[in-house]
Amino acid sequence: MKRIVLIRHGESMWNMENRFTGWTNVDLTEKGKKEAYEAGKLLKANGFHFDIAYTSYLKRAVKTLNNVLDAMDEDWIPVVKSWRLNEKHYGLLQGLNKAETAAKYGDEQVHIWRRSFDVAPHEQPKDGTGSAFGDPRYAHVPEAYLPRTESLKDCIARVMPFWECEIFPKLKEVDNIVVAAHGNSLRGIVKHLKGISDEDISSLNIPTATPYVFEFDDNLNLVKDYYLGDPEEIKRKQQAVANQGKAKK
User: Fold this and answer.
1) Burial of 170 (0-12, 13-18, 19+ CB in 10 A)
2) Which of 11, 87, 89, 182 is catalytic?
3) pTM for this structure?
4) Whole-angstrom Cα distance, residue 112 to residue 116?
5) 143 catalytic, yes or no?
6) H/E segment holding residue 80
7) How far is Cα 135 from Cα 178, in angstroms, rounded to an integer?
8) CA-to-CA distance for 130 and 148, rounded, in angstroms?
C-alpha cells in the first residue's frame, strides 16, 4: 500500500480576519500552529510516517508542514517547495474582507469569485497586494507564468504539471508522501484523483489542518480516501470554510 496525505494549512492571520489571501505571504496564528501540531500528533498516533514532503512557497503552508513533522519527529525528511503549490491567486480581491465584499457585491458574486471553475477575479496590478512580481522567491519563474489573478481552472493548470511530473511519480520510489498546501491547490489535486466534475468541485470544502489520506495499490490505482479525525469536528471545519464568503447577517 502507498499513501499520499494532503493537509491544508492551519488557520492563518488572514483566515482569522476573513480576508482573501491568495499569494499574500501571511503567517499562521497561534491556533493555526496548534492545529498543525495536533495534526502531526494524530498522524503519528495512527502509525503514519513519511519519506518525503512537499509544500508551497507561502509560509502558512511551510510552517504547517514544519509543525506536522515536528510533532511526528520527522523533521529530518526531505522537503521540496514549489510555487506551483501556492494558493489560487485572488487578483484585486487579495487583502479584502470576504464578508464585507459579499455585503457589497452579494453572496452569489463572491461565491463565483471564490468557487466557480473558470471565472477569475479582476487582475491586480504588478505592485498589488501579494504580487509575485519583484519577489525574490519567484525570481527563477518566467514572468509569463506569474499570475495577476486566477480561476480554479487556472490554478489547477499550474498545479498539475508538478503533481504529474514530480509528486505522483515519486510513489514509484517511496510509500508515504505528505503535501501541505492550500484550499484551492489541494482542491485541484482532489478533483483529479477523484474525477470530480467542473460543476461539483465548487461544493468541495477542505478543512484546515486535517489529514486527508489517499491510499493506492502498488500499481498506483486509488483504493480509498478518508479524513483522519473526529467526523463531527471535520464537518464543523468544512462548514466554517463554506461560510467564509458570506455576508454577515
Assistant:
1) middle
2) 87
3) 0.94
4) 5
5) no
6) strand 79-81
7) 27
8) 10
DSSP string, 172-197: GT-SEEEEEE-HHHHHHHHHHHHT--
Cell, residue 91: 487578483
Task: Scan for cell 498516533, then name that residue.
Answer: 45
| Average pLDDT for 146-165 | 97
Find cell 507564468 and name the residue: 145
DSSP string, 11-53: -BHHHHTTB--TT--PPBPHHHHHHHHHHHHHHHHTT---SEE
| pLDDT one-digit tens code per residue, 39-90 | 999 999 999 999 999 999 999 999 999 999 999 999 999 999 999 999 999 9
pLDDT digits (tens, 9 = 90+) for 178-216: 999 999 999 999 999 999 999 999 889 999 999 999 999
Q: Which of 9, 11, 74, 89 is catalytic?
A: 9
Which amino acid belongs to residue 245? G
Q: Based on the residue annotation, tell me whether 87 is a catalytic residue of this protein.
A: yes
